[in-house]
Amino acid sequence: MSFKNLHHIKRAFKETDVICIIDKNARILYYNNYNDIHNKLGTEEVVGKPFLEVYPWLDWETSTALKVLKTGEAVVNQPQVMQLDDGTEVNSINTAFPLKNEEGILGVVFLSYDINSIVSTAEAESKSKHEHNLGSKYQFSDIITRNAEVMRIIAQLKRAAKYDSNILIYGETGSGKELFVHSIHNASKRASKPFISQNCAAIPKNLMESLFFGTTKGSFTGSEKKKGLFELANGGTIFLDEINSMPLSLQAKLLRVIENGRVRRIGGRKEYKTNVRIIASTNEKMDDLLNTNKIREDLFYRMSVVNVEIPPLRDRKDDIKVLAAHFINDFNSKFSKNIEGIDTKVEKIFLKYSWPGNVREFKNCIEAAFINSADESKIRPEDIPKYILKKTGSAKDYKNLEFKAVNKLSLKENIKELEKHLITAALKETGNNISQAAEKLSISRQSLYNKLEKYGFKLP
Predict the structure, then answer these.
(1) Domains, in order of start, for the chain
(2) Judging by beta carbons within 10 Å of its beta carbon (0-12, 13-18, 19+), is residue 446 exposed, middle or buried?
(3) What is the pTM (predicted TM-score) of this model?
């Protein structure tokens, strides 16, 4: 734990309203509610009970204490907004840190103080932005690439970000279009204004118009006076993802908004001025959109003042290693591992595979490898999903790696047996050649000699 975190934890103890200690099974061992106005229980009523029984409005995803219990990583001064069973909204600042010994996590110390009464105007505005998805989180510096075409696109979009021209982006599913869109907004003069992202394919067609343009009270059964997304995005940017899913009739109304900068709510006569930059994306090639009449020609030309095509991962294989390093670094933190990189055989498999799901699929593959890895220093072929091995014709090369775990053995003992199995297979395949076997196992000769001695192997 860093000195900085220690300082914040000491401060949290002084300012806290609640101190709670839970064990590794999430049962409360200690509870002191100095000022827990939302949970008026005494210590004797709480100790020994499951944490989620005392705080039923939380779960394993939303609770700071349970997150720390799951990850083993301290959380310091984490803002949290909770909705109580009676509808009350609670703003708090939470700190939690794990209690550990050499065997692992013993429990968690959880500290919290209520800030409802001192929430500043700026914090309230930030909360409002979060509720309406008015935020963008990526910068151009977050786009990981060595590919010349992607770097050219980044340079083009950095120039385009300075102006208010509309932008149309094509990219296959999973290619990372949203990173580019967020980056454009954050590099523009509108960066401090709202950013609203809406996937057009995710909205029922009969609700699209009211969502985008708003409603007046009584315009249809149950309707209320409500702003649409274009009004909420006023001054900022609206991102229309998969615009090819928008009905042609609604595209005509969108065209009018682009032309005159005004919207009219459903059922209303009044027009509202709106100053928005529109960025749209499609997962179908632009020529195909026009040829299949999925987008109006006049809207296409108004939207594609700037248009770019994000290359799929199969066309930017020079990004494989740098993306792998990036995701490995992320997952090392998430899973508390120390994997250094990918095995040379894995690199060849990655370069051979076509990645139809693009960067998103590649990230999921690395995550799966982390879960499957037996804490080795590198990701190896047997760690990656089998369907990738099969599609690249690599599965047959690793049949000798199949291993059946023994239920009566512990995880640690099974890992030892697996390691012995792999060493035996490598030695057999190389005719007991230490150098070649070590290379197949992606370890040094000395490491292999140490393991041979450890497991009592006797070579002829």
Answers:
(1) 3-116 (3.30.450.20), 140-309 (3.40.50.300), 314-400 (1.10.8.60), 403-460 (1.10.10.60)
(2) exposed
(3) 0.59
